[in-house]
Amino acid sequence: MRPYVEANISHKSHTTIKYFLKMWSSVSETLIFIFLGVATMEGPHSWNWIFVTATVILCVGGLTYVINKFRIVKLTTKDQFIIAYGGLRGAIAFSLGFLLNESFEMRNIFLTAIITVIFFTVFVQVKILM
Are 59 and 117 a contacting pair, CB within 8 Å? Predict the structure, then answer.
């Protein structure tokens, strides 16, 4: 839609929309990470070493290894790192896990594993980059 919208609005409107969307994106990300922090501190967690460790290993690198077995054009190590870093620390996995029904018995284990993966990708992978 970008080519059609940009051609039909003024430069001032284009600038306003661009900065509004950047601001809305920053506010949304901030609210999600505040909610993540609150859920981390107050939520009932169920820690299972095997499940959490397997989840971190599979999410950070294991799944792309399995995918490469079936792809014609293989993902490089750099591609795998970008996928793991860019996609797993976001709010989608946390939101989907949080929306699980309260009566689902594995909900707390899932939320604990999701939060662990998010923290691993935010803190450990960032330290590797620096």
Answer: yes
What separation, in Å, do the N-terminal and C-terminal C-alpha atoms of the chain show?
38
Report the C-alpha gap between 11 and 9 in whole angstroms.
7
State how far the Cα of 12 lies from the Cα of 36, in Å rounded to an integer: 36
In one-letter notation, the amino acid at residue 117 is V
The model's pLDDT over 61-102, given as tens digits with 9 standing for 90+, comes to 777 778 888 888 888 888 877 776 666 556 788 888 888 888
What distance in Å separates the CA atoms of residue 109 and residue 98, rounded to the nearest whole number?
A: 11
Contact 121, 60 (CB under 8 A): yes
CA angle 64, 96, 39 (to 5 degrees): 110
Each residue's pLDDT tens digit, 17-60: 889 999 998 898 888 888 888 888 887 888 889 999 998 888 77
pTM of the complete model: 0.68
Q: In angstroms, what CA-CA distances link 100 with 10, 105, 118?
A: 44, 10, 18
The CA distance from 110 to 99, in Å, is 11
Task: For 43, list phi and psi in degrees, rounded to 5.
Answer: -70, 150
